[in-house]
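Protocol step 4 of 6: structure prediction from sequence.
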Amino acid sequence: MVTNSDTPIVAAGLTISAPGGATLVKDISFTLGRERVALVGESGSGKSLTARSLMGLLSPSLHLQAHTLNIAGENALTLSERRWSQLRGRQLGMVMQDPKYALNPMRTIGWQVAEPLTLHRRLSRSEIKEKVCDILAAVGLPQPAQLMARYPHQLSGGMGQRVMLAIALITEPQFLIADEPTSALDHAMRDQVLALIRQLVEQRNMGLLLISHDLQQVSEHCERVMVMYQGSILDTLPAADLPHATHPYTRTLWSCRPNKSTHGKLLPVLDRAALTAGGSHD
């Protein structure tokens, strides 16, 4: 049997419904261990809803059901909001899409990075300051002591995303959820931030769930891929096998990536009828 320390997240029959009964995520099952897993698919496929359900951050208007939803060894279906808050601060970390909206413009960088420690650890001011400096340096930010006094508007997009990563990692969680963490960055900076996330996750022996549209980056930085379509997981495969995917949907997602070789050419169009015939691949 896999122990909780090896498998921080176990979901079986996870379903998310909207008011009126529309099913947004349909009876999906997966386990996430101390590995780098990507969740990919088109916009609206249910990726971010799935991620938010694992953090206890779904909108109150949505209804979540599951046969099993265990987070860090606890039954997430029965957790109080207070316990969810403790899990998010201790066992789970999350990096959001755009630091312009996720960071508080009225608070200094030092205050925002220190906040999880203030809430979830009993440390002296000097210990907190030392840990904030250490994590800012760990995510590749220069002169962390001076940076602590600055505000989000004084940072570039890449620096802001590194601050978001520092906030997520400062309490040393066992699992990190990164929801499109590079979507607001230029291509070169995306590669840098993804490489940094991978490095830190490996160094800290953490699990990672990366939500992404960029299959090339997924193939380079993740070990396993789950492919979502209209609320269902259609395919699960090793990330290195993406170029040779056999499922028609996964194969089309990979083939329609714009690149130099496809410049000026029509990209492939998915035959959605083939998805019914293709079935799901595990």
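Step 5 (inspection) to follow. DSSP finds eleven helices and eleven strands in the chain.
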